[in-house]
Amino acid sequence: MKIKSLVRDALEGAINIAGYDVEFAKKGVRELTAVDKKVWEPFCREIDRVRLYQQAMDITNMWDTDNFPRQLRFDSLQQTIQHVLQHNIAGDFAECGCWKGLSAYITCHYISEYGGGREFHIFDSFEGGLSDKTDQDDNLRYQLSEQEIVEEKLHFASTESHIHTALEGHDNYHLYKGWIPERFEEVIDTQFAFVNIDVDLYQPTKDSVEFFFPRLSSGGIVVCDDYNMSQFPGAKSAIDEFLHDNSGQVQYFYEVPMGGCIIIKR
Q1: pLDDT tens-place string over residues 92-148
Q2: How far from the centroid of its chain's Cα atoms is residue 94's Cα?
Q3: Are 254 and 241 in contact (CB under 8 A)?
Q4: What's phi and psi for 172, nearest 5 deg?
Q5: CA 122 – CA 235 distance, rounded (Å)
Q6: CATH for 46-265, options being 3.40.50.150, 3.40.50.2020, 3.40.50.300, 3.30.70.360
């Protein structure tokens, strides 16, 4: 037993010297571990939410954006979608801002498997990235130059073909090309169960939550991916203002660790 410990310690030390943080444990011990301070345990297990996240990353070719906070947000996103479907909250699904289709792919999967004929409405400008920033959108951590602001804007560019490719095989979604809120009127009479708002900036976040929340069923959920993000503080400002003015209509509000929020309608 002591020899095994010495071999294990030697291997861990050699790999750590090479620049990797590795810790060996007996297989049985690892399987019994629910939480490990050094890793987020769900992403060390074979569970459906992890597999779907990884599959979405592959399909959209977005592994360069993978990080711990994103894993947390997308696990929360999946659990909220599951909640809506398991409790049969009435209405369609919507997404405002889809980038290259990562969350749209995940949402389409759940609707196709468990949605019972629901439709998925996706709104995005597909016009070269983010809309123009306002004073509420100034990065809280860094003073960006004009060139950096342009580069940030273009970084989030996508095309309709990105989404059609990512969602190939699904026939339950509709794309609405145009700056938010230009095309919201086309779903003005639609009831919604779930809305994912991921438009980064103050004004489109404000326009999105103000339009869709009144059309949510009781128990319906709005998710704002950019809430509490220092890069995009305008999203938090828009949501906080809405919550202040509509607190009586909110059943529950939750700030997702490391970014994002969940709002459940009363």
Answers
A1: 999 999 999 999 999 999 999 998 889 999 999 998 778 788 888 887 777 878 888
A2: 13
A3: no
A4: -105, 15
A5: 19
A6: 3.40.50.150
